[in-house]
Specification:
- By secondary structure, this protein is an alpha/beta fold.
- The chain has one domain: P-loop containing nucleotide triphosphate hydrolases (Rossmann fold, 3-Layer(aba) Sandwich), CATH 3.40.50.
- A six-stranded mixed β-sheet has the order 2-3-1-4-5-6, with helices on both faces.
- The two termini are 31 Å apart.
- Bound molecules: guanosine-5'-diphosphate and magnesium ion.
- The site of guanosine-5'-diphosphate has 19 residues, from helix 1.
- Magnesium ion binds next to helix 1.
- Keywords: GTP-binding, Lipoprotein, Membrane, Nucleotide-binding, Prenylation.
- Belongs to the small GTPase superfamily. Rab family.
- This is Ras-related protein Rab11D.
Length: 178
């Protein structure tokens, strides 16, 4: 990216959810179009960026990962976040059962207008599915969240998940400027 890059907006989006649900691989897929099956727990990396064009404006998405500290995500992590991907693993029931707690924490810390997408990752592992699409959809509707199932491995819906959240943030943000 050229150093003289002109950016119209910078939107901070956070990734949250249990350890090993695939947050870091979702981010690697979105930011660098990469995937690794033997990814080590995220250490040190705070965020990655990717600049996209939405409605003729240049939008820099700044995506924060938990750096492997899922149990100790702090208020600094949520500060200024305009969007969130709330991730569970469709093959791990427990990671879905923990979603209400993550949502509560998120709503306790973040801006009240935050755009939230519930993400059921690892949709490529259909044979090991432990959370039905219907259950997740019902929860998302009840809580007013967007919802998609993704596969970071197969690059399914990762782009859509971020695009939806960023476009929605853009809508809210540009309304403020009318
Ligand atoms: P995090 O702890 O939430 O950041 O999870 P990681 O991104 O480190 O992923 C945990 C493990 O799940 C790694 O072995 C990944 O390769 C694997 N993984 C992540 N996404 C997918 C996916 O979409 N499909 C499959 N089959 N495995 C995945
Ligand atoms: Mg990670």
């Amino acid at each position: 990216m050229a150093s003289g890059e002109k950016v119209d907006y910078v939107f901070k989006v956070v990734l949250i959810g249990d350890s090993a649900v695939g947050k870091s691989q979702i981010l690697a897929r979105f930011a660098r179009n990469e995937f690794s099956l033997d990814s080590k727990a995220t250490i040190g990396v705070e965020f990655q960026t990717r600049t996209l064009v939405i409605d003729h404006k240049s939008v820099k998405a700044q995506i924060w990962d938990t750096a492997g500290q899922e149990r100790a995500v702090t208020s600094a992590y949520y500060r200024g976040a305009l969007g969130a991907l709330l991730v569970y693993d469709i093959t791990k029931r427990q990671s879905f059962d923990h979603i209400p707690r993550w949502l509560e924490e998120l709503r306790g810390h973040a801006d009240k207008n935050i755009v939230i997408m519930l993400v059921g990752n690892k949709s490529d592992l259909e044979d090991e599915r432990a959370v039905s699409t219907e259950d997740a959809k019902e929860f998302a509707e009840k809580e007013n969240l967007f919802f998609l199932e993704t596969s970071a491995l197969q690059a399914t819906n990762v782009e859509s998940a971020f695009q939806t959240v960023l476009s929605e943030i853009f809508k809210i943000h540009s309304k403020k400027n009318i």
